[in-house]
Amino acid sequence: MRIVFVASEGVPYSKTGGLADVVGALPKALAGLGFDVEVLLPRYRMTKPGRAIPSMQSVTLPLASGYRYASIQEGGEAHGVHAYLVDLPSYFNREGLYQEKGQDYPDNAERFAAFSLAALEFVKRAATPPDILHCHDWQTALVPIYLRNLYAEDGFLSRTSVVFTVHNLGYQGLFPPHILPHISLHAGLFTIDALEYYGKVNFLKGGIVFSDFVTTVSRKYAEEIQTPEYGCGLEGVLKSHADRLQGILNGVDYDAWDPATDKLLPANYTPENLEGKKACKKALLEKMGVQALVLSRPVIGIVSRFAAQKGFDLIADIAERLAELDLTIVALGTGEPVYEELFRTMAAKYPGKFLVKVAYDNTLAHQIEAGADMFLMPSRYEPCGLNQIYSMKYGTVPIVRATGGLDDTIEPYDGKTGTGFKFSEYSAPALFKVIHQALEAFRQPKAWQRLMLTGMRKDFSWTSSAKQYAKIYQTLSKEKSKSKPATEAAGS
Per-residue pLDDT tens for 303-316? Predict the structure, then answer.
């Protein structure tokens, strides 16, 4: 069975968030199950050029705003997965993937329309059609929209099914309706049953409506997004498609995230020998500019986008109270200016208590996971989350809000069993209370070590998740094989 992943980012070629980790790891797990898997990505400025494919030097993209020509390059092969890169310099040779200086690129609709068309033209040039196109988030939601409309009479793709994964419902790809003719879509699609959403064109909605199956990245999040609180205005659409909606928890690529083998750490360690974790804590504090004189003081790590969605409004409300406690907070990330400034201010006001780096630094992210004692994720909503899973593997106890994947993955500590600390009510007092509970538990070294070891021995590898996706692919393939190709149906 041939599976083609179409995504706007994927490691090791490009990354802004967790989507890239999934696109880098899930295909590898599927290839391990025997699937023929390919990945198609844009070639951004940050992406090294691939090897030219003579037959794909000039792929014509039928955009109504004017023909564009893309070349498709071979990015490489690893673990049985072939990667291909769509080279469209006028759209993708830019500083950022989706935005620059905090502002979305004004031509994002055209950029990802061109990429989606390139994906379909790419698969059409193969000897056999793909069984599954697996698309991700609003940036590739146009693939199923085009497939069911612009390519509706294309017999070659008539038995190709689309699986569409929503990684974060909050990002929907909203554009004015006049964009439709510019991206080769007819005005008849601007209806409540298709792309219309409160007077705008909604790419994500179209991806949900026109795909054969929709997944999201945890069981709890699949339930939550069918409610007004978490549905971001699409809860009705999702409820109407509930029979083909499933939450599948993201896995973790333990090749990249394992303290026993992590080359980015100053010392490695295992559940059987934790000495290296102490060395990592000392090195982390020294790297952040303070002498690690008191290793007994708990360190709480944060690696996150600094945003209200991630619970930073709650952190802001209790920041002064946290400064009074016997702890150190080490934070890494970028995001909303108000929260970047909050951490800079707290670091200046309370040196040694608040340590911050406003940037993206993959090495430091690994070192925080290893060097911290606890990891804080008080998200308002969290589709899956990966850092809480990394944290458990690294013996760093998660403190999370019970939402989405955080709720699915963390078992609350009751003094004897569990893997972390959870709170339900989205409020500053509830967050402060659960942090205080974690600090109290930290003062009992033997019990704390048992808690650490329980988390370290959990297995969230991709194999289980990949098998769930495989079942969906196989079901869709069987359904398509029973139906007639579009060319036959048209002539019958």
Answer: 998 999 999 999 99
Burial class (CB within 10 angstroms; exposed 0-12, middle 13-18, buried 19+) of 446: exposed
Q: Rounded to whole angstroms, how far apart are CA atoms 115 and 441?
A: 51
Q: For residue range 409-445, what is the model confidence (pLDDT) as tens digits?
A: 999 999 999 999 999 999 999 999 999 999 999 999 9
Rg of the chain over all Cα atoms, to the nearest angstrom: 23
Straight-line distance from the first to the last Cα atom of the chain, in angstroms, rounded to the nearest whole number: 28
Query: What domains lie within the chain, and their CATH numbers?
Result: 2-251+463-491 (3.40.50.2000), 275-456 (3.40.50.2000)
Say if CB 347 and CB 355 are below 8 A apart: yes
Model-wide pTM > 0.85: yes
Adjacency order of strands within the sheet including 299-303: 354-358, 328-333, 299-303, 374-377, 397-401, 421-423
- Cis ω before 12 (30° cut-off from 0): yes
Hey, how many other C-beta atoms are within 10 angstroms of the C-beta on 61?
Answer: 20
Query: Which runs of consecutive H residues, i.e. helices, occur in 93-135?
Result: 108-124
Average pLDDT, the chain: 94
| φ, ψ dihedrals at 136, nearest 5° | -140, 120
Of 165-179, 291-305, 436-450, give the lowest mean pLDDT range: 291-305
The DSSP output letter for 68 is E
> Two tokens at 208?
């949900």
